[in-house]
Please model this.
Amino acid sequence: MPSTATTTKPHRPATDGTMRYAFTPRTRAAFGRNSEPGTEIKFHIVAIEEEPDRDFHTKAPKFNEDGTPRMVPILIIQTDGTTKPYGPGLRKMWVRSGIADALIGACLDAGTRKPEVGGRGTIRYEGLGEPPARNFAAPKLYSATYEPPIDQEAC
Model:
């Protein structure tokens, strides 16, 4: 007579990594491929992280000349006007090319060197620029404003 008992995997305690993954909010990108020109996001920075940069087409990691992985900063932003570190308004903003240029200009205008946790601002997708060469994609252009946290000193 066949057994009707189900087999289960052996018990294994949760590690810090699995607990961190379980309790990390699921965030989406602030701007997607279907974002229309004129889309504006008001944000409050709740965390700044980094992850290895990857090639767009092959998804292979990129490396610096010395062999270390190239990292890309990510701003975890709250977009619904609250400062809570979780919820439906949480978004990721990868600080690359057009977004980086806009944020650098906004930070310089605000008298700071870089965005900090607690900073607020807006970022607006302006549209597409001129392609750098034939058969290249046009770069996305952004504009931004930034207000540093109250307790941050101006340089």
User: Anything to note?
Assistant: The first strand starts at residue 28 and ends at 29. The longest helix spans residues 97-110. Helices lie at 16-23, 97-110.
